[in-house]
């Protein structure tokens, strides 16, 4: 603006922002918290309790104290704030790119309910009479989810979506066993574009898994289902819409084919953002379904728990629900553990109560019409974003443009032209403060990327996101090596991902890291 | 969470997928013969292509191997396959002019398909050789498209002749790994009939047959040819066993062995996955041959079609074959020992089991598995859906059909 070198703080008005954000991620070069430990440092000096010490039995006593990091409060806070700055998520970025993982805004007011002492200080062993309020929340949320899915009863005990799927397969197993067909029905059918936890849970529960591949229109091949069902079929476990965002209009036929063979049909509704208030699992004839509270009902993700999952069942499967169940006699809530056919506990006590409270608060704030509006807005946002993305040369959406809440796109055209892979486009996009996820493996859609805008994002957000991808695609044409060298503005530049796939290297805990890499 | 974590770019790149196997686009072609115009198609047949397959010789390169194949009872089939392609071409685009070489290098096939060919001034050797193919390619002038029938070795010869127009391979060899081949003879005819001038680059790969016979697989890239841009109907370059998923062949083998029943005979086709089955059984089965096992014993190794006809005769017999990655062929590519007659016997008493990793199935891009034994009647016996073992206690139900079914002559 003037002749000064560098940026001036004094001049007004402030220069307009360029179309693309000049983003730079925080880079703290932060050590692992265990490496910051100093003997004797502590956050809180706890005063003497004033009661005599209790002698613990030797069997529960530690030989040596746990090796927890010793740090002051400030340093603990600073550590986690720094890590949070070296991150991308809904609260600071346009997080439409986590695909099937559904990143929607979780209203902060719901955290206030969770932090309220009435919830935060609950003890799992309190007598029923002193926890009527939280039991009522469980009971009411169960009724609401039963209404949303059309199911007879719902369990909120599972601590995550996959735990809910596992609860479902456990109920399927118990159902067939109760009819003397447990051994005979040893196969579970799923589809390639279904949530992979279905295949994983079925296998963990001891089933042989048969996968249906998509037909030429992107729908699961119904003729393959016809060939697969039989006296060995325990269940069909299927997602709809699948990870492609394509809704299977013949889903009732799928269900009746399986029912015809004596199997059960289980609907994976991990992500129900495209169908809330529009279709119901029970109406398509399903016997079981589940929701991930964090994908559809706005609770935080938790990487395998403690998140929140809900298992819904039809009347004939209700005896097998995880227990204890929350019951209401018209005046009082209580727990019913006397359920002889129950598959047992999925989780100690009731489940992850804070997430049940958050989901309840979210649903109550929206009401029935609001829930349907969530689905409509999510579908509208997705179709708007699809329109923007498909106008980028080199991007495509295999199997047409009829999608609900997400799309698995392909950069195949761009790759053929430039040699730049989808992963590289996604990493370069991170230089502008956004990211995306490609696809489950194996890739059926070549050079895939999966976007799901949900109801949370504004038109401006979607415009900005599409503009970033358009810019990176253009860069790939002009200077592919630059894109392949990305990221440049990120916390970490290049990382070697082999440690993710090598059991000898992966270290989910400090203890494992110490053993595998520092020994 | 459905999306557990982003996968490493390197790992994903190693996976066979349409991305890796599809021909890449090339510059727009010169003159465009549209549907209404008369198309002139060149035809070159390698009459000995594929002759080594049924004899278990893994290829047909070289006069010695060809003589040995004839001695083992093989009969040449490339001419018939070329005729099938021309028949489909003429049915779909009547009036197409065929220019070819006298005798078994094209004329016989063209006439068998009902064409009246124009002949090049060229006298091939008897038997014909690589040199004749190269010379024929060089002599082909003023044609819109060159059809050639053969395998990867023939594709290399065509490449050496520097064709002046786009080419399309009619699969007739033992090894058909190159991307310039149509899925089947009929598909080649249909693709040629619909050729509108748009082209793509396709890779020519070949194996050293000597090392291949000794059990090592390693295709080399020799160059690229311009082919009609009709990607779905081309084979796509073969994608080898993926190193990205170690253990998957072992996991598949574990399932195959778990399903084996006493008293039943299993015909193991060639490939790394079926080899893993042999390894799990503790048997010295061969990587590239067809082997027969029963009750944990190796009944016969590296059998010929004739031997197999006898072995498949007594009692329940199952064929266990793997999928050629990127192409989807389960019969008729590298396992010609499982001939139409053998397949008919097997399907009458037992059945077909297909082995493939999920990655391999994904790499087919939705296309069906294909049977191309050379006899549509035999191929039809396996048509419909087949259980594909993808791992231990894991399978996929997948479409399979005769390669000629979609484009009948």
UniProtKB/TrEMBL annotation, chain A:
Signal sequence interval, chain numbering: none
The protein's Enzyme Commission number: 1.4.4.2
Annotated keywords: Oxidoreductase, Pyridoxal phosphate
Catalytic activity: N(6)-[(R)-lipoyl]-L-lysyl-[glycine-cleavage complex H protein] + glycine + H(+) = N(6)-[(R)-S(8)-aminomethyldihydrolipoyl]-L-lysyl-[glycine-cleavage complex H protein] + CO2
Gene Ontology molecular function: glycine dehydrogenase (decarboxylating) activity
Protein function: The glycine cleavage system catalyzes the degradation of glycine. The P protein binds the alpha-amino group of glycine through its pyridoxal phosphate cofactor; CO(2) is released and the remaining methylamine moiety is then transferred to the lipoamide cofactor of the H protein.
Name of the protein in question: glycine dehydrogenase (aminomethyl-transferring)
Record organism: Streptosporangium brasiliense
Automatic annotation (TrEMBL), chain B:
ATP-binding found in the keyword field: no
Ranges of biased composition (kind: Low complexity): 11-24
Gene Ontology molecular function terms on file: kinase activity
InterPro entries: AcoX-like, NADK, Put_ATP-NAD_kin
Keywords: Kinase, Transferase
Domain of life: Bacteria
Region (Disordered): 1-32
UniProt KW Transferase keyword: yes
Protein name: Polyphosphate/ATP-dependent NAD kinase
């Amino acid at each position: 603006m003037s002749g000064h070198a560098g940026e001036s703080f004094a001049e007004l008005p402030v220069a307009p922002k360029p179309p693309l954000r000049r983003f730079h991620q925080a880079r703290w070069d932060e050590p692992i918290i265990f490496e910051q430990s100093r003997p004797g440092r502590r956050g809180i000096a706890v005063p003497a309790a004033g009661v005599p010490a209790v002698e613990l039995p030797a069997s529960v006593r530690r030989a040596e104290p746990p090796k927890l990091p010793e740090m002051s409060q400030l340093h603990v806070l600073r550590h986690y704030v720094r890590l949070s700055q070296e991150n991308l998520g809904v609260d600071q970025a346009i997080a439409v790119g986590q695909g099937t993982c559904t990143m929607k805004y979780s209203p902060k007011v719901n955290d206030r309910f969770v932090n309220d002492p009435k919830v935060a200080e609950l003890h799992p062993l309190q007598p029923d009479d002193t926890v009527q309020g939280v039991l009522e929340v469980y009971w009411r949320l169960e009724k609401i989810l039963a209404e949303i899915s059309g199911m007879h009863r719902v369990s909120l005990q599972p601590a995550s979506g996959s735990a809910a799927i596992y609860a479902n397969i456990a109920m399927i197993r118990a159902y067939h066993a109760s009819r003397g067909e447990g051994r005979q029905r040893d196969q579970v059918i799923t589809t390639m574009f279904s949530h992979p936890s279905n295949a994983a849970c079925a296998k963990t529960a001891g089933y042989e898994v048969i996968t249906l591949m998509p037909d030429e229109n992107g729908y699961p091949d119904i003729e393959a289902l016809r060939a697969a069902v039989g006296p060995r079929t325990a269940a069909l476990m299927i997602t709809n819409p699948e990870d492609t965002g394509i809704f299977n209009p013949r889903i009732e036929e799928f269900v009746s084919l399986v029912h015809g063979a004596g199997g059960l049909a289980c609907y994976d509704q991990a992500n129900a953002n495209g169908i809330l208030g529009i279709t119901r699992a029970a109406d398509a004839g399903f016997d079981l379904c589940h929701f991930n509270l964090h994908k559809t009902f706005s609770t935080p993700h938790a990487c395998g728990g403690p998140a929140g999952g809900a298992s819904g069942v039809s009347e004939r499967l209700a005896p097998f629900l995880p227990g204890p169940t929350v019951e209401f006699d018209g005046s009082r809530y209580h727990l019913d553990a006397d359920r002889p056919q129950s598959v047992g506990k999925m989780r100690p006590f009731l489940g992850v109560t804070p997430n049940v409270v958050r989901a309840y608060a979210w649903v109550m704030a929206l009401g029935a019409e609001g829930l349907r509006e969530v689905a409509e807005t999510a579908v509208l946002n997705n179709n708007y974003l699809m329109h923007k993305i498909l106008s980028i040369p080199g991007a495509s959406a295999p199997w047409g443009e009829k999608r609900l809440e997400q799309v698995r796109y392909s950069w195949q055209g761009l790759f053929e032209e430039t040699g730049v892979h989808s992963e590289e486009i996604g990493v370069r996009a991170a230089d502008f403060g956004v990211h995306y996820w490609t696809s489950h493996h194996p890739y059926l859609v070549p050079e895939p990327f999966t976007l799901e805008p949900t109801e949370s994002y504004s038109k401006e957000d979607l415009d900005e996101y599409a503009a970033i991808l358009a810019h990176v695609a253009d860069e790939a044409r002009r200077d592919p090596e630059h894109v392949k060298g990305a990221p440049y503005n990120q916390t970490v530049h290049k990382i070697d991902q082999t440690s993710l796939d090598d059991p000898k290297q992966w270290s989910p805990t400090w203890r494992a890291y110490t053993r595998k890499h520092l020994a | 969470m459905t999306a557990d974590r982003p996968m490493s770019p390197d790992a994903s790149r190693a996976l066979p997928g349409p991305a890796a196997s599809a021909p890449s686009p090339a510059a727009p072609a010169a003159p465009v013969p549209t549907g209404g115009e008369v198309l002139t198609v060149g035809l070159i047949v390698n009459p000995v292509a594929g002759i080594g397959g049924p004899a278990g010789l893994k290829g047909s390169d070289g006069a010695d191997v060809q003589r040995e194949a004839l001695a083992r009872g093989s009969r040449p089939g490339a001419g018939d396959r070329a005729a099938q392609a021309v028949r489909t071409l003429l049915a779909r685009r009547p009036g197409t002019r065929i220019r070819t070489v006298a005798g078994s290098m094209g004329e016989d096939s063209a006439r068998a398909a009902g064409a009246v060919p124009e002949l090049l001034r060229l006298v091939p050797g008897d038997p014909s050789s690589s040199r004749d193919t190269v010379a024929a390619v060089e002599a082909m002038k003023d044609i819109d498209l060159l059809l050639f029938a053969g395998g990867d070795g023939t594709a290399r010869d065509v490449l050496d002749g520097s064709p002046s127009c786009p080419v399309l391979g009619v699969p007739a060899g033992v090894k058909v790994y190159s991307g310039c081949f149509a899925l089947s003879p009929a598909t080649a005819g249909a693709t040629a009939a619909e050729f509108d001038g748009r082209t793509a680059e396709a890779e020519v790969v070949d194996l050293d047959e000597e090392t291949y016979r000794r059990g090592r697989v390693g295709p080399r890239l020799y160059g690229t040819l311009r082919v009609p841009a009709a990607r779905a109907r081309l084979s796509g370059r073969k994608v080898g066993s993926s190193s990205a998923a170690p253990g998957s062949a072992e996991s598949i083998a574990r399932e195959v062995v778990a399903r084996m029943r006493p008293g039943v005979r299993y015909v193991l086709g060639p490939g790394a996955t079926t080899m893993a089955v042999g390894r799990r059984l503790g048997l010295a089965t061969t990587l590239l041959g067809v082997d027969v096992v029963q009750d944990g014993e190796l009944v016969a190794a590296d059998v010929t079609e004739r031997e197999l006809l006898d072995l498949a005769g007594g009692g329940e017999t199952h064929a266990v074959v793997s999928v050629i990655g990127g192409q989807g062929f389960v019969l008729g590519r590298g396992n010609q020992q499982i001939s139409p007659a053998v397949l008919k016997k097997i399907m009458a008493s037992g059945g077909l089991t297909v082995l493939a990793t999920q990655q391999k199935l994904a790499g087919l891009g939705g296309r069906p598995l294909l049977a191309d034994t050379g006899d549509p009647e035999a191929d039809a016996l396996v048509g419909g859906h087949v259980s594909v073992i993808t791992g231990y206690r894991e399978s996929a139900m997948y479409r399979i059909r005769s390669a000629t079914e979609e484009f009948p002559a």
